[in-house]
Amino acid sequence: MEWLASLITSNPVIFWLIVAIAAGVVEASTAGLFSVWFAIGALVTMVPAWLGASFNMQIAVFIAASAAALVFTRPFFKRVLRVGHTPTNADMLIGSEAAVVAEIDNIAERGRVRAGGLDWEARSADGSKIEKGAVVKVLELRGVTLIVEKTTEEKQEEK
After folding, report:
1. Measured in Å, how far apart are the chain's first and last C-alpha atoms?
2. CA nearest neighbour of 38 among 52, 54, 27, 49
3. 131 contacts: CB under 8 Å, gap ≥ 6
4. CB atoms < 10 A from the CB of 117, how many?
5. Above pLDDT 90, what percent of the chain?
6. Burial of 150 (0-12, 13-18, 19+ CB in 10 A)
7. Does the structure show a pLDDT above 70 at 98?
């Protein structure tokens, strides 16, 4: 630890550069934005260190610069580095038609449809019962359950 105290007092600019590099390495090894704010804070703190500010002042600048970097740059980074939803093969079923192979009854928590060549658990979007043999449209996928509604033709036939 004596070497660290000696580095801080003899060459604080190098110390803050090492802190910035270390924070950058940690950031590169994590999946999300975790320590980039500290790297920015350390880089900013190199200026007062170079100007000969006391170590307590450098710590205050580091904390303030890191906090400012977090507040002002996080929204930008979140927008630019947005992690989007990656569609799966099952997501391609949304908007397609399916055949009801077992009556859909939300209250009894049962119902099955055949969509995309596979048999799926299904629920009605509006809570209505849908009889076996009906053609439905897939509206969404919740877990492994398809949320469906009767197609326009099926609705018109009922009237």
Report:
1. 84
2. 27
3. 100, 103
4. 5
5. 58
6. buried
7. yes
Cα torsion through 34, 35, 41, 42, rounded to 10: 180
At 21 the three-state DSSP class reads helix
Residue 70 contacts residue 41 (beta carbons within 8 Å)? no
Position 143 scores a pLDDT of 87
Alpha-carbon gap, residue 128 to 121, rounded angstroms: 16
Beta bridge partners of 91: none
Q: How far apart are CA 102 and CA 131, in angstroms?
A: 7
Tell me which of 27-36, 58-67, 93-102, 122-131 is least confident. Answer: 27-36
- What is the β-pairing status of strands 145-150 and 135-142? antiparallel
Residue tagged 């209250």 (tokens): 107
Amino acid letter, residue 105:
D
Neighbours of 151 (CB within 10 A): 15
**3-class SS of residue 96:** coil
- Tokens 């979007």 found at: 125
